[in-house]
Amino acid sequence: MDVWAEGMDSIYTSKSLDSIYLPLDLNNNTTVYNIRTNSLVDQITVNYTRNEIYVSRSCGYKFDFENVEVETTNEWINNVTLIDTIINHEQTAHIHITH
Q1: Longest C-alpha distance within the chain, in Å?
Q2: Residues 22 and 31: beta-carbon distance below 8 Å
Q3: What does the pLDDT profile of the chain (99 residues) look like in tens digits?
Q4: What is the distance between the alpha carbons of residues 36 and 42, in angstroms, rounded to a whole number?
Q5: How many Å separate Cα 64 from the centre of its chain?
Q6: Of the candidates 33, 65, 95, 98, which lies 20 to 30 Å from 18 by C-alpha distance?
Q7: Could you tell me if 3 and 34 are in contact, meaning their C-beta atoms sit under 8 angstroms apart?
Q8: Burial zone of 27 (CB within 10 Å; 0-12 exposed, 13-18 middle, 19+ buried)
Q9: β strands within 2-89, DSSP E
């Protein structure tokens, strides 16, 4: 499996994985990822609203992502399940993708 963000370098190359971490773009309200297995490429588009939150003077700011929506081209991905429409931490999965 190969994974790359639209217009960026690959995050994963020739990997066999059961889960992946895909960071969201802090500068835009959309992030697009391409996932290739064999010769099939699926595109996953994540749309969201960025909410910048001041944490503290030493930590600075963090982003929460709200109104999250996911679309896919469904070439080899069977199902995309959005666990929550708010992403406000990195400890658990927020989107499940089955193929």
Answers
A1: 48
A2: yes
A3: 889 998 888 887 877 777 788 889 999 999 999 998 888 999 999 999 999 999 999 999 999 999 999 999 988 888 888 888 898 887 788 888 887
A4: 6
A5: 13
A6: 65
A7: yes
A8: exposed
A9: 2-5, 10-12, 30-37, 40-56, 60-72, 79-82
